[in-house]
Amino acid sequence: AVRICRRFGLSQRVLEVLEATKENFLRGEMILEEVDWRKSLTSTDLKMITLARAFIYDPAVMVLNLPTSSLPLTLAVKIVGLMQEFVDRRGLEMPLSTTEAIAQRRPRTIFASFVRYEELDGVDVVWALDHGKVHEISKEEVQARPALGRTSAVT
């Protein structure tokens, strides 16, 4: 879990806050609902914690609504790369193994919506909502028709 958190760019300070909270809770010194540690974190920290938690659970299917919308573009592109790795390797931080071993793991699918064209590089299928209808379109068409608005993609 810590390796995944680091891959999502959580700072050592954030990891220490999370670890301290966990230890205090396990010792019975606090009730989780009363923890106010979130106020010491930035909105980016909270977004990255939320994303890291989703990947730590290692689900077969994820649906992510605008997972990178409030992030700087460089960080958003990094997150999209982690999403693609999650699908391609069938999990993050899985033991290094052969192609055959990876093929034996259960497949992973991510449905995500994006607002920036640059985030579509690693996706397999793109859908756009246009006048209340969903259409499969090419990435090039998204770039040519920015008025399509929010775009959903499958990796």
Describe the protein in words.
By secondary structure, this protein is an alpha+beta fold. It folds into two domains: 1-57, no CATH class; 60-155, no CATH class. 41% of the residues lie in helices and 16% in strands. It is built from six helices and five strands; from the N terminus they run αααβααβββαβ. It has a five-stranded mixed sheet. The chain is globular, with a radius of gyration of 18 Å. The two termini are 22 Å apart.
| Strands in their spatial order, largest beta sheet | 1-2-5-3-4
Measured distance between first and last alpha carbons: 22 Å
Biggest sheet layout: 5 strands, mixed
Given the C-alpha coordinates, what overall shape results? globular
Number of domains: 2
By DSSP (H or I, 4+ residues per run), the number of helices equals 6
